[in-house]
Amino acid sequence: MAIARVICTCKRCGKTFERRTRRWTDQKAREWEEWAAEHITLCRACEYDDYVAGAAKLAQAASANGLPELEGSDKQVTWAEYIRVELLASAEKYLKDNWDKTHMIVDDEIKEHNEMVLHTLGQVLVQVRLETSAKWWIDNRGRDGGQLLRSVYREQHPEELEK
After folding, report:
1. Cβ-contact 141, 83 below 8 angstroms
2. Where are the beta strands (DSSP E) in the chain?
3. Which of 58, 67, 122 is nearest to 86 (CA)?
4. Residue 3 pairs with which residues in a beta bridge?
5. Distance separating alpha carbons of residues 125 and 147, to the nearest angstrom
6. Burial of 126 (0-12, 13-18, 19+ CB in 10 A)
7. What are the angstrom distances between the C-alpha of 112 and each of 7, 102, 116, 133, 146?
8. CA angle, 142 as apex, 82 and 117 as ends, to 5°?
9. Alpha-carbon separation of residue 107 from 31, 100, 112, 118, 137 (angstroms)
10. pTM score, whole prediction
11. 58 close to 113: Cβ distance less than 8 angstroms
């Protein structure tokens, strides 16, 4: 195991900072050092400032699209803004893709069943869009949109699991 180390100067604030990582071989460590010297241009503080600014832009866009403001600590809200935009996009894509597949089904009974399920999941998406807890979004970060919709539905309808 080799330690790669590079000293950089932040292009924004001018501070000198160090970055380290581990690589399996000395050669890989040297390659990373060369890459890092060219590509790592911001210190952690300036990177975080960009991250926070990006979250603020996401919050503005969310508000413009009718989504509520998230509630929680500043750090939770910042993180949750990124998670929310990804999960909602994934859920919307999941529904769209499955509607497209359903329209191609020939069997009317199966098609009708799928349409009913997708309509229900669409209603769940409407509810999910109104979630204001940053913690809730963070707790659901490991899911894709389809998993999110199905799990919220199951939480709301536990009696159906007993059948």
Report:
1. yes
2. 2-9, 16-23
3. 58
4. 22
5. 12
6. exposed
7. 62, 9, 6, 35, 19
8. 100
9. 57, 15, 9, 16, 38
10. 0.83
11. no
CA 153/CA 43 separation, integer angstroms: 43
Output the CA–CA distances (angstroms, integers) from residue 121 to 6, 56, 74, in the order listed.
Answer: 49, 29, 31
Q: How far apart are CA 60 and CA 39, in angstroms?
A: 30
- Cβ proximity of 136 and 151 under 8 Å: no
How do residues 45-84 score in pLDDT, each as one tens digit? 999 999 999 999 999 999 999 999 999 999 999 999 999 9
Determine contact, residues 133/81, Cβ cutoff 8 Å: no
Q: Give 94-118 pLDDT, tens digit per residue.
A: 999 999 998 888 888 998 998 999 9
Q: How far apart are the first and last CA of the chain?
A: 54
- Using alpha carbons only, give the angle 133, 67, 123 rounded to the nearest 5 degrees: 85
Among all chains, which residue has been given the structure tokens 């799990």? Answer: 151
